[in-house]
Amino acid sequence: MSKDLKFLVVDDFSTMRRIIKNLLHDLGYPNVAEADDGKTALPMLQAGGYDFLITDWNMPGMPGLELIKAVRADAKLAKMPVLMLTAEAKREQIIEAAQAGVNGYVIKPFTAETLKEKLDKILGAGK
Amino acid sequence: MSNFQVLKLEYGACVDALSEALRGGDETAFFTAVDHIVRMREPQTLTEIRKLTGDLQKALERFSIESRLADIAENEIPDAKTRLSHVIKMTDEAAHRTLDLVEQSGPLAERTAREAGVLIDSLQTYRDRPPVGSGFESVVRSIDAFLPVVRAVEAFLPAARADSERIRKNLADVLLAQGYQDLTGQIIRSVIKLVGELEETLASLTNLSGDIVEHTTLGENPDQGHGPVVPGVTRGEVASGQTDVDELLSGLGM
What we know:
The structure holds two protein chains of two kinds. By secondary structure, chain A is α/β, with parallel strands linked by helices. Chain A has helices at about 15-25, 40-45, 65-75, 90-100, 110-125, and strands spanning about 5-10, 30-35, 50-55, 80-85, 105. Chain A has five helices and five strands. A five-stranded parallel sheet of chain A has the order 2-1-3-4-5, sandwiched between helices. Chain B is an all-alpha fold. The N and C termini of chain B lie far apart (about 90 Å). Chain B has helices at about 5-25, 25-130, 135-175, 180-205, 240-250. Chains A and B meet through helix 1, helix 3, helix 4 and strand 5 of A and helix 3, helix 4 and helix 5 of B.
């Protein structure tokens, strides 16, 4: 059942979106959509149909942290699992992201194993 | 007409009136002449004060722009140099990682292709062999001739599977190595922002009559993010790796 999950990958760099999409495919999640910043992602999420959000932090337009806050503030999306996948590595930022309600935090550059581990953990915890 | 002649024309009559009053002991006429001279000087003094104020304002503007320039030159340009050197390091590492993986995969693919070629040839030789004997003897000879081909296939298939798996894994790692573009892109973007600011500041310096540019410091808005950690540039406490992040989050109860 979990393999039918629909992911939304938000990152301003198309190469990074491609990498994450490929890794998700390899992990058995073929259903992946992309957005290049929070402003594009939020209406997509609000339109419905997504089960998991993976977002970068540093993006022009609406940054990832703002997107997460908007997601958590939206009654329909509040419970959506969110993984932050970012180069932001300051301790205060990680704490801020945790407070904003992320379910996982992975710093770039990352490995396929780390992504798998965090996804399994988040999806396992949600069951 | 010389400057002095102009002065003589402007002030001559007043000075004459002044010395006349002095000679004649006329106090009222004396002070009237002095007042007249002072009034004549007033507009010039005002113009000079105005000019002085203007010069002072320009000097202050120049000082403000020059301080910003000094700040850029002292701190942000060296930071930008470190950032760009880090970009070179990351692209260099990613390129080498990719080349290593490609170089490892090439011989694996070649070996599979070569051994498959040998098998194809063996099968062809088997098919082309001249008929020997008849009946049961022909069947036995046929099996005997085919056995080495079967053994070669048995040896080939697991090796081909292992090589293909290795190539598949290398390709996944090549994909992952391209992640540098995201990180270097963010760093280069921040340097472009600095160059833009430098350009604006220099333009203000050459055109002091314009408004002073409003300065924004790089990475001031924490909500926007600071970009990748650059050794020697990023200030404050940073997570050293994923393990550090996991420990921090588990400390927060996640």
